[in-house]
Structure formats: structure tokens, C-alpha cells
Amino acid sequence: MKYIVQLGICLLGIIGVVAAQQSPRKVIDFNKGWRFQMGDEAGWKKESFKDETWRLLDLPHDWSIEGRFAATNPAGNAGGALPGGIGWYRKTFTTNAAPGSRVSIEFDGVYRDAEVWINGQYLGKWPYGYTSFSYDLTPFVKYGAQKNIIAVRVDNSQQPNSRWYSGSGIYRDTRLVITKKAAFEKWGTFITTPQVHEQNALFSATTTLLNIRKGDRSVDLRCEIYDPSGNKIATALPTGSWKNDSVCTLQTEIKQPQLWSVKSPQLYKAVFKMSIAGKLMDQWQTTFGIRYFNFDAKKGFALNGEPMKILGVCMHHDLGALGAAFNKSAAKRQLRILKEMGANAIRTAHNPPDPQFLDLCDEMGFLVMDESFDMWAKKKNKYDYFSDFPAWHRKDLEHMVKRDRNHPSVFMWSIGNEIREQFDSTGITLAKELVGIVKELDPTRPVTCALSENDPAKNFIYQSKALDVIGLNYHIDSYAAFPVNYPGEKFIAAETVSGLATRGHYDGPADSLRKWPSSSKFKYVENGNPDFTVSAYDNVAAYWGATHEQTWRIIKKYDYLSGEFVWSGFDFLGEPVPYPYPARSSYYGIVDLAGFPKDVYYMYQSEWTQKPVLHLLPHWNWNKGQTVDVMAYYNNADEVELFLNGKTLGRKRKADTSFHVTWHVPYTPGTLKVVSYKNGNTVQERTVKTAGTPARIELTVENKNIRLADNELSFVSIRIVDKEGNLVPMADNLVKVTTTANARVVAMDNGYPADLEPFQTNRHKVYNGLGLAMIKGLNKGTATIRVTADGLKATSSSIIVE
Ligand code: GAL
What we know:
Layout: H1 2-20, E1 26-29, E2 34-38, E3 55-57, E4 85-95, E5 102-107, E6 114-118, E7 121-126, E8 133-136, E9 144-156, E10 174-179, E11 183-196, E12 200-210, E13 219-226, E14 232-239, E15 247-255, E16 268-276, E17 279-288, E18 293-296, E19 300-303, E20 306-307, E21 310-315, H2 328-341, E22 345-348, H3 355-364, E23 367-371, H4 389-404, E24 410-417, H5 426-441, E25 447-451, H6 460-463, E26 470-473, H7 482-485, E27 491-497, E28 514-515, E29 540-541, H8 548-557, E30 561-567, H9 600-608, E31 614-617, E32 627-634, E33 639-644, E34 647-652, E35 661-666, E36 671-678, E37 681-689, E38 696-702, E39 705-706, E40 713-721, E41 734-739, E42 743-749, E43 763-765, E44 770-777, E45 781-789, E46 795-801
Parallel strand pairs: 21-22, 21-30, 22-23, 23-24, 24-25, 25-26, 26-27, 27-30, 28-29, 39-46
Antiparallel strand pairs: 1-10, 2-3, 2-4, 4-9, 5-8, 5-10, 6-7, 6-9, 11-12, 12-15, 13-14, 13-16, 14-15, 16-17, 18-19, 19-20, 31-32, 32-35, 33-34, 33-36, 36-37, 38-40, 40-44, 41-43, 41-45, 42-44, 45-46
Helix pairs in contact: 2-3, 4-5
Domain Glycosyl hydrolases family 2 sugar binding: 85-177
InterPro entries: Beta-gal/glucu_dom_sf (IPR036156), DUF4982 (IPR032311), Galactose-bd-like_sf (IPR008979), GH (IPR017853), GH2_Domain-Containing (IPR051913), Glyco_hydro2_dom5 (IPR040605), Glyco_hydro_2 (IPR006101), Glyco_hydro_2_AS (IPR023232)
GO molecular function, one term: hydrolase activity, hydrolyzing O-glycosyl compounds
């Protein structure tokens, strides 16, 4: 750096020239045109192997989701009851990289035990299915017109290896990166804003350079900073002395910083440029955010000085009917639905997410607890990561932290979930080691671990004293005594609730509580419903959990409880407690697998947002003589009144600690109406009518315009309604979705956890009146989507493929 300062003003002239030069760095999308084959033969890695008969596909790809559900699939229903196995991918490519370049291949995620060859040369194995990795291809790659072959063997045959659905294959993006030899190291840059004031903030970035000649005075390094509106506002220059001529810190002041927050997620851009003798050698850029936060043992959490609760949900990585194959627009839809509910944080249970998921969280304003592992050296499943942990945990943890540490959304690291080492003294040493690995790479964020043993005397991970914030799972009854049991410690409810519900299904009495399974004696069900449903009155929870309402009541009450991560935001594939097969996806979600909110979604919305909420449940199709429990969630009102066929059934107010009101209503068909009042004036009204037989199909299209280049999807919600437009609450019609030739149905779902029809089809039953079709564009233009069902009036809609 001293060289640059010495060069002073005359360098500025050169800089202008440098800025205009094209960066030699090329980042090439490597997802298209792979050959795929299930099975395993030694010869498939060979350069000479002829793979033309293999299936041609584009990544991301998950072969499990394409399979058939079966009780005999070794993943079991906890793993989603879909097939695993071994699969191979091969891709032929040429590169016009100039000889002397560095060429590398990057994988964002392969489940699991990925082995990679180029031109028959073995590059290595990457066991963990959730961390990103790359290989330097430079020594093996052939340039110009010569063909190169990448072969990838993916082995998900040893099962069970997961407590949830993992997916199989190269299920995240791949890319080829070409740079000069002198370049920014991959993940070698760490941006922080160590001082943030109203008038200014300090931008500080430490970056690692590859192949810089020691003492080379002609190296110019700088970082241009753009504000959220895209204006160039500052340039950071090296400061202090270069550590060893390859690690350098650049700093600058950012005036009037626009802070990143969950309400206003302002993103800056940093463009790093490295030139030698006036020639641009490498350019690399990232977004970043300016924010500060702290946890306090008494006051809980504050972001940018403002106290706030962490209103979080846990999310597994699958995207429902798409399986594990990442699609940004599908992840965005999940996040949009959660944002509208009022969630402001996500815990990536129990592994690092797709990097684009974090981009979305940066852009949409979610805090993220980025989690590394579900087990350490002690297993939870026969073939899980435990056997790789000793040799690989350092690398996996390093890759997570280095990859994700520039995301403003990521606010804490979790070194594990319900790790069995919490029960013995190995927990002390391992926790210290893992926290140490994280802190070496990122001393700025707190580290936690999601602990299930809430007795501090029995919890060895807690006793390591290595955690910055104590993460407790469940045991809400112990939260009141947290300051006494954990004096001076900071708290996060790393996992809560585990309520169970099927969208649109109701078993009364609504205000009863069913623990289901009732104890550890019962893995599966005592007295299940024959159709594998669970009541959606928020009256069922696993015995280790509590209802949504019980949990939120406590989290809300104490300031020192910084917040919670509800298990779970969405239903996910696998872990269908409380049912055995054919149940194959979870009941835990606030939102079902297809993205349709369950009723309790509105409890959160009424508490976690300011927008006026009034939600009435259940449907109004019952049998005469039944007494039905009717509930309403509401806010921004003093009281609500229920009417049946125009006759009042009385006004009610929520009790101080309750988030809903209930009426017991003798059923007569007709119209149920609820009205909310504030100061005597009507705020909102909702009605539910007794529906007749299915007559028509109604469509709602989300993402009407989809970009081909970004692999965006349209989401078509299908509602079966009677002739007056009322949702038919038990409708299960088989619907068929066809499109014009420039689009295709990629998957359908209905959110029913025991549905055994494949997802990747264009005909599927709806469940409780609702279904979903996900549409992909094939060619630009308008695409018509037509939905038909026997005996019903067909409906069409259109989307625009751009
Ligand atoms: C927790 C666990 C989660 C999930 C949940 C279901 O104990 O951390 O992964 O299994 O229970 O209730």
C-alpha cells in the first residue's frame, strides 16, 4: 500500500484508464447441457466414454424429486420416501481462456459425496451435501477448440443419511470462472463496517490476492463504492501495510450511510479492482450493507440501535414440488409469503443455504442465522455426516463462513443443531474448536448453537462458554427463569413450536390441546385420522413443542428473549410427524408445502405486522346438528362480532394474553360473517359461505412476466369454487394444466402431506379446494395456461415469457 500512497496524484491519471478497461475475469454459467445417468460404472469418468445416449438436462437438478414415492425407499418417510442412489453427470465444453489463465469450476451444492474428474483426471471428493466447493482446473484444461469433459459422480445411495428430505444430485448452480493468475482469491475478501454513525461509516475490506510478486510497486488496488441508488460515492484504498504482500486492507469513509435494515434493506456495491503497471488484472464485486446490532442480556436484540424482536422461522432447503433443485423465483415466493406474514428472520435449518437465498434475504430484508451442521461426530442417522465430520468439519465450516460473511442479512452463525455432544464433555472441546474456526474468519458476528438440553448443568456445549448467544430449542416453560439459570447470558429461542396442522382441516374442540405424539414412547400415532390429517386450529403440537400461540405469548412477554425461530415457516419434504407412510412431508409449517398459508399464518400476521388483519376460520360446510368452533384472528380493533345468516352471535374481545377469539356455533348452512370494530366503527369484515358443489376453476397467477435467462417460474394457484365463487373446502378434483408450446408445467402440488402422486406432472388433484402449478418458459412470447377438470368449466390465463 505504501507504494500507492507514494505514487500519489500522478497515479490518478492512470486510474481513469484502468477504470475503463475490461476485466479479464469471466464468470460463465455452467448449468446448461449436462448428460445424466443413474447407476455407476468405473468407465464413466473416462474422457473417451461416449455419453450421447444419456439424458440431456440443465442444472440445478434433483433426481430424487423425479422419482416415485414408496415405503421401501431407503430414505424412509422421514427422508421424504423418494429414491436415492448413485447418479453421474458429464459435460463437454471448450474454453477460449487464454493459456496462462486460471480456470476453475464452482459447485454451490451437490448432495452428496461428489467426486469430480476433468479429462479423466481426478480432482477430488466433497462429502458434505450443503457446502459450496470448487476445483482449480488450470493444470488439466485444454484450450481453444479442444474438448474437455467434466464428470461428476454423486452418491446418495447410503441411506438413511438425513432426518429430512435431502434431494440428490447437482442441485445448485455450477459455473466456470476464468481469471488471470494474479487475481482476487475466491472468498478472499471480507467487508466490514466497524464504525457506523449518522454522519459517516467506516468501510473496511480485507482482501487476499493471488500471485502478486512480493514488493511489486506497480500493483494498484482499490475498491469503488456505489450507494444504493447506483452513484459512485467513494473509493477505498489500501491502508496500513500489506500483511505479506497478498493480504491487504482497504478503507474509506462513507458519508451519510443509508443503513440496511429489515424494513429498508439498503444495499451498497463494492467493486474491487487490481491493476499491475496500469493494466487491469482482476475486478470483482459484491453487494454489502451497513448495519450494526447487538444482543443484550436484559434488553434483547437491537438493530441499528432500535430494539426489535427477532421474528424468525426455520426453513429447510427444499422448494416443495421442485425438491432440492434451487430456483430463485421459488425461493423468492417463499420469502415473500413469509415477509407478508411479518417474519423478519430465517434460520437455515440445519445447513448452509444456496448462496442466492442469501442474496434474496439481503434484498428483501431478512436477518439470517446461518447454520452449519445437524450433527458433529455423533450420528443421528446411520449414514449421516458424522463419519465425515472429523476430517471435514474445518473445511465445511470455513467454506460456509468465507462464502457468506459479506451478506448483511447474515447476523449470526450457528455451529449446530441439537448436537448430541451437548450431553458429554466432548461438547466442550468441539464447541470451542468450532467457534474458534468461525471467529478466525469472522470476529464480527455472534456464534450460537441450537441446544435442546436446557439445564445448564447438563449441557456441555453451554459449559464450553464459547457461545456468544445461548440458543435454546423448545422448553418454553424454562424461558421465564433464563436470567437466573444463565446469568448474564444473551438469549435466542433458536427453535420453537413444532405445531402440527393440515391446511383446511379442523378437529375440535379448538381450544383444547393435543400433544401428538404424546410422548417419546410413541414414535407414530396413537389414534390418527384415517386420511392422515391434523387439525389446523393451532391445537396440536409435538410433545417437545407447544402451540404457536403458547410460544409467542412467552416470547412476546420478556424483553430479554431476543426472539424466536418457529419450526417451521413452510412445510418441507420428509419428517411427517405424527404419521407413518404414506405421509411423506411435514405438518410443521405455518404455510403448506405448496405455499398456501394455514390459518395460524394470520395469527402471526396480526401480531407481527401493523396491517389490519381479520381472519375467520373454519370453512362453513358441516353437518346439521354439529357444533362448530369458529375462531377469528384480528388486530387494530377493540372487538369483533360474529353473525350467522345475519343474526348476531355476540361480540368478543381477545383476553389479555390471547391472540384469537372463539365461538361455539350450532351449525346451520348459510353465511358466517365477522366484523371488527375500533371505537365503534367497522374496521374490516370477512365472510365464509356454505359452498355448493364444484362448478368452476379460478386461477391466480403470481409472476405473470418471467425471464427465461433467470429460469423464473410462474406460480398458478388453482381454486375450485361453486357457481357463486365460494371455495369448495373439501374439493379434490383432478385438474389438468396445459400450456402453449412456449411454456411447460414443471411441477404441481396441493400441499397434502400424504399425496403419493408425483410432483413433476401436469395433472394433479387439488386438496381442500386448492392446487398449484409451477410454469417455466421455453420461448419468448405470451403463453396461455389452460386448466381443466372433469365436469367443471375450464379456465385460462396467460403469462409473458421474456
Ligand atoms: C427439532 C429438530 C428439527 C425438527 C423438529 C421437529 O428437535 O431440531 O430438526 O426435527 O425438532 O419437531
